[in-house]
Each structure stands twice: as structure tokens, then as C-alpha cells.
Amino acid sequence: xxxxxxxxxxxxxxxxxxxxxxxxxxxxxxxxxxxxxxxxxxxxxxxxxxxxxxxxxxxxxxxxxxxxxxxxxxxxxxxxxxxxxxxxxxxxxxxxxxxxxxxxxxxxxxxxxxxxxxxxxxxxxxxxxxxxxxxxxxxxxxxxxxxxxxxxxxx
Length: 155
Fold this sequence. Notes:
Elements: E1 6-8, H1 14-23, H2 31-39, E2 43-49, E3 55-65, E4 73-82, H3 91-105, E5 110-116, H4 120-128, E6 132-141, E7 146-154
């Protein structure tokens, strides 16, 4: 699969995002939530398509003002997921690389994300990419209730 198969998300892909999110137990977003995010000019919403243009993964995040000064920006990843049948082929890495490139285009200083403490596969991916644990957020997730790890990667 080539990098060129990472494409922007549009309204026709919302059902795919919800399907992948449900399949992979991601933080729940409604169709309205994704549609609202599409309207935000600072959103980064990318999908990974297979050779038949079927969505097999996605990443959603945003460029945000850095919390510690007036002029810098950071990236935040809200959701990243790959269909379970496609795990283990580097697709999550491709999505993360594409998101990172977009953040660099915006001159972001760092990228932030939160991940379930039990999601060891994702935590390993993030650690391999230079993300470091910043803190634990108690009971961040529901269904099931679980702590989250706040992670950050400096760019």
C-alpha cells in the first residue's frame, strides 16, 4: 500500500469512521461530531484507503493553541483506528506519519494524545514514535471505565 492512499476525509466517509471506531473500541463520536469537525479549518482528518478505495483506517485530530504560550501551536490526536482485520501491517504507522507531517506543515511544537491504559499495542506504537507518558488521567474513559495515559511527542 502506497502513501498516496492516505486521503482527506469527506462527508461520504463518516459511516466508515463510525464502523471502524465501533469495531476497535475507540472513544465514541457521533456522525454529527465528525461532521462538525470537518467544518473546523484546523482539523486534520485523514483516511487510509485500500486499492478498492475502501476505508481501512483513519486519524482525526486538530491544530490547537499551545497551552503554555501565546504564539505556538500543538497537534492533538482525538481518534486513530485501523480495521482489526488489517492490524499488523503498518497502517497505523502510516496514519501517524501523515498526521505528523500535517502538524509540521503548521509548525506545531508537539503532538498530544490520550490512550487507554489497556491498549498496549497502541502504547508501543506511540513509544516507538517518540511519544512519552506525561500523566495518568483517572477514569478518563467509559464503557468500560478506564484510566487514560496522556502522551506527548516533541517535533
